[in-house]
Amino acid sequence: MYAGLWRALPGPVALRLLLVLVLLAAVVVVCFEWLFPLVASWLPYDETTVDSDDAATAVAALPDIAALPDLLHTVRTSHG
User: Which keywords fit this entry according to its UniProt record (predicted)?
Assistant: First the structure.
């Protein structure tokens, strides 16, 4: 697909590169101005499924950060 686009663009390499950058910028603008707002209306941003109690329990279940080097060493030696 990209090779076909590159061959379809007119001019020398510098002009083609400039055109590709302009096309890429246009795609980004279209996505942020029209596509993402349209899709956002269909996404359930307000419907959370994680309670604050569940999040606190999950954080408490994480290993101590001081033990992280030992944990990484254990994982590396058990896989290799």
Answer: Membrane, Transmembrane, Transmembrane helix
Judged on CB neighbours under 10 Å (0-12, 13-18, 19+), 62 is exposed
Give the Cα separation of 22 and 19 in Å (integer). 5
pTM value > 0.85: no
Per-residue pLDDT 10s for the chain (80 aa) are 789 989 999 999 999 999 999 999 999 999 999 999 999 888 877 776 666 666 667 667 666 666 667 666 666 666 65
- Dihedral of CA atoms 58, 59, 62, 65 in degrees, nearest 10, equals 170
CA–CA separation, 15 and 17 (whole Å): 5
